Amino acid sequence: MTRPLILGLTGLIGMGKSTVAAMFESAGVPVFDADAVVRSMQGPRGELVGAIEAAFPGSTGPEGVKRDVLGEHVFGDKAALARLEAIVHPAVAARRVEFLIEHGGAPMVVFDIPLLFEKGGVSQVDSVIVVSAPADVQRRRVLARPGMTEDKFAHILSLQTPDADKRAAADHMIPTGVPLAETEAQVRALIERLREDRAQSS
After folding, report:
1. Helix/strand/coil for 112
2. Pick the CATH number of 5-201 from 2.30.40.10, 3.10.105.10, 3.40.50.300, 3.90.105.20
C-alpha cells in the first residue's frame, strides 16, 4: 500500500495558515497541527510539562506551561530557545509518526508546520504549500492579537524566512488576502489537482 502524499503547509505569522488548514480538513484531508500538538503536550498534565519546568524553573503551574513566563525565558535568547526546542521537537516528531500511521490509507495528509523552512522540515514532505497575504493585511491581523506589540511582531518576523523567499521556494501558493470563498475555492482546486496527479502516477 502506498503512503499518503504529504503536504507541508506553512506561512508567516498572520498569513492565515490556520484558516487554510481548516479548509483542508473540511475537504476531508487529515491535518497534523504541530502547534495544537505542542499546546496539548504543554497543557495540564501534558507530557512535556516536567521537562520544561526542569529546564525553565517557574514556567509551569497546575494548568501546564505558563506561555507568557516561558516566552520571557526564551525571548531573544537563542540558547534558551534551542534548549526548549530540544525538548519539544522530538516529542512532536513522535506524534507526527503516530498521525501518519493512523492516516496511512488517506490519499494525502497535511503537516501544518509554521517553521517548515526554518527548521528543515521540507525534507519530510512531498510538496510545500505557502499561504500568503499582503504585508499590510498581515500586520493588521497580527497587531490585533491580544498582547502583541510591534517589538514582538518584529522579533517573530526576524526568526522566520521572508514571505517572498517562502513563496519562491514553495510548490504551491494559496492567497489569503482575498475573500474567504476565493481562498477556499483555490484550496479545493489544489486538492483535486493533486488527487488527479496522484492517480495518474500510481
Report:
1. strand
2. 3.40.50.300
Cell of 193: 489537482
d(CA 43, CA 21): 22
158 alpha carbon, distance to own chain's centre: 17
- Grid cell digits, residue 90: 522530538
Q: What is the DSSP letter of 21?
A: H
The 5-10 sheet, strands edge to edge? 31-33, 108-112, 5-10, 127-132, 172-175
Q: What is the pLDDT of residues 105-154, one digit of tens each?
A: 999 999 998 888 888 889 889 999 999 999 999 999 999 999 899 998 99
Do 20 and 134 meet the contact criterion of CB atoms below 8 Å apart? no
Query: Per-residue b/e over 50-60, b at no fewer than 16 CB within 10 Å?
Result: ebbbeebeebb
How many residues can be counted in the chain? 202
What is the pairing mode between strands 64-65 and 60-61?
A: antiparallel
- Domain map (residue ranges) of the chain: 5-201
pTM given for the model? 0.86
Model pLDDT for residues 48-79, shown as the tens digit of each residue: 999 999 999 999 999 999 988 998 888 878 89
Give the three-class secondary structure for 152. Answer: helix
